[in-house]
Design goal:
homodimer, 389 residues, alpha/beta, Rossmann fold, four-stranded parallel β-sheet, NAD (chains A, B), aromatic amino acid biosynthesis (chains A, B), DHQS/DOIS_N (chains A, B), EC 4.2.3.4 (chains A, B), cytoplasm (chains A, B)
Chain lengths: 389, 389
């Protein structure tokens, strides 16, 4: 597995758009990163014009940004339809997808209809999958408005909905035409979502770039305080690493799986607690702690480096103690339906020294030990208590 | 638009497998055509081995062939799961797709699970779409058991389910690894389905090959009598023409749309009567009559050639008089949601001389005239009467 991510391409300020290209032959596209992109006509240059554009968003984001996006699309499409979905991971299902299809069909959307995904990871994943399926594929543009979506989910073409038996089980690899990451949209993001997004930013350090890990350690307080220059750097570097990985392995037949560091344990937490109880980034943060611990017990990672990972996740305000769920067997059952599993064998993304990831199975006994050492029934109780009745 | 289909590659007998390659770079594959392929281990050579294979079929076809297919897969997969769907176009929906996903997840299907689609067009379209979506894509093999599926729907990677507002509205372009067209499976096919399949065979003449049209005129009685040599020739020539078209335009951005000759009117009939009341091939047969008539009124096709098309469809036992549905506006509304429509403008596949197709819009008034001349309320009444209460 290649160990070196490409060098950083630094742009001078958060205001000036930065361009990170994703090289995928005919499906290549750019990620644009900068403050104020949403309202800048230049952001839309070269995107297709057609009779209908559909803005897909949710009840939280649409009131903030849908009109501003529609104003920019006005000259490019004769009609603009806005589809507002209920907010949250527990609506990431086929029934919600159908609301998009119903709206497209009612508005006589055709194969040239352009879908704009305006929102976080859930909106992006569902809009992208709807674009992949509607009339067997229509063009779409990602306009991510959460940190998590800007650094991870909007980039790389993974789209999906959840199935009751597993997260993101039903989906497609389908690339957008462009990603517009307007850093100004992060201003309205709740702190909890900034922290959840930082989980995916932190992820890129251990798997691909030890220097970036050092940088995050030094700049975490600035990131939590939403310092514009710090956020611009974090988003750009995250996208560069993701672009490098995705360009080499679009359909996750090898290298790309390293982007799932923390996700195997994380998915078990999300499925076990019920989707949406913890934010995806929170579950991934805790999952990275467990995977770091497992890497250490397998002798891949020294104890000091594992402790640095745990400490950084903790400083970001993310959970570092997991729920117990239904016990070890329950954890293992959730992880066996992970998409990286093969023939029922769970394959973990592990850290083989800071900045380098590998994939391998691990003995059930060792996995169970790690979960036992790092979980607490009080976490389950708190999660249950935090849920609306 | 290219006008010449490639020359026919003749194989000596229906028993010896014929191979029609579909050239799509990394997604290239072969259609194998012959009697007895299902039970011949050579048919499966080179297909992937893995822990799980899922045979997706329906209540009609599974009892006839699922065990024989499973016997061939036994040595290639540790476990074989058979998923039996309800039969018929009215089950071609997302709820039925979910039965496939539920079975795959319950059987711990992973990304290496191979899906075998055993049945007609509905089974093939749904299994293929399930393969496209499950864990964002798993390998699949088409084993078409109807004439319609062997000459059309199993070839070329179009997969889909219906939406209440339109047929095949939700789907994907997703190519199989191989198509195994065992002509012996046609022995058990009801006459009505042979006739419906012949609609798609006949289609290839007017759009691409006047000589093939002549051949069908001369051999229609042999085809209706299921003469093995005639069927082998019809399936092979149909697949060759389809392979030629699909290889040039996989995602239907141009040429491929000619394969939808008769389908714009046909979809309106299916949607208007209710999916499944007429077989797809019956609706397409009648649709080709209307489209031939429209071609003649637009001055593209001489009256003699149009009459030959109508006569051949009639001799095949297919309907040549359409239902009235809810009147002209109802027809137009159904056709405006056709996937070939753009910005609400209906685009028809028309015949520009036997053996040559073109795509263009037509004045609503002229379309309405054609429908009025070629429809009869008695057809609607008969369709209603034939439906189970």
């Amino acid at each position: 597995m290649p160990t070196a991510a490409p060098a950083l391409t630094l742009a001078p300020s958060p205001e000036i758009p930065r361009r990170v290209p994703i090289a995928l032959d005919a499906r290549s596209y750019d990620i644009l990163i900068g403050r104020g992109l949403l309202d800048d006509p230049a952001s839309y240059e070269g995107l297709p014009r057609s009779a209908l554009a559909a803005i897909v968003s949710n009840t939280t984001v649409a009131p903030l940004y849908a009109e501003r996006l529609a104003a920019q699309l006005q000259g490019r499409h004769r009609r603009i339809e806005t589809v507002v979905l209920p907010d949250g991971e527990d609506h990431k299902d086929w029934a919600t997808m159908n609301r998009i299809f119903d709206a497209l069909l009612a508005a006589q959307g055709d194969r040239k209809t352009v879908i704009y995904a305006l929102g976080g990871g859930v909106v992006g994943d569902m809009s992208g999958f709807a674009a992949a399926c509607y009339m067997r594929g229509v063009p779409f543009v990602q306009v991510p408005t959460t940190l998590l979506a800007q650094v991870d989910s909007s980039v790389g073409g993974k789209t999906a909905v959840n199935h009751p038996l597993g997260k993101n089980m039903i989906g497609a690899f389908y690339q957008p035409l462009r990603v517009l990451a307007d850093l100004a949209t992060l201003d309205t993001l709740p702190d909890r979502e900034i922290r959840a997004g930082l989980a995916e930013v932190i992820k890129y350090g251990p798997i691909a770039d030890a220097d970036f890990f050092d940088w995050i350690e030094r700049n975490l307080d600035a990131l939590l305080a939403r310092d514009p220059a710090a956020l611009a750097h974090a988003v750009q570097r995250s996208c560069e690493i993701k672009a490098w990985v995705v360009s080499q392995d679009e359909r996750e037949s090898g290298l790309r799986a390293i982007l799932n560091y923390g996700h195997t344990f994380g998915h078990a937490i999300e499925a076990g607690l019920g989707f949406g109880v913890w934010l995806h980034g929170e579950a991934v943060g805790c999952g990275m702690v467990l995977a770091a611990e497992l890497s250490a017990r397998l002798g891949l990672l020294d104890a000091g480096a594992a402790a640095r990972i745990v400490r950084l996740i903790e400083r970001a305000g993310l959970p570092v103690i997991a729920p117990v769920l239904g016990g070890a067997e329950d954890w293992l059952a959730h992880m066996r339906v992970d998409k990286k599993a093969e023939g029922g064998e769970i394959r973990f993304v592990l850290i083989d020294g800071l900045g380098r990831a590998c994939m391998r199975p691990a003995p059930d006994a060792l996995v169970t030990e790690v979960i036992a050492a790092r979980s607490d029934p009080a976490v389950d109780a708190a999660a249950r208590a935090a849920q609306p009745a």
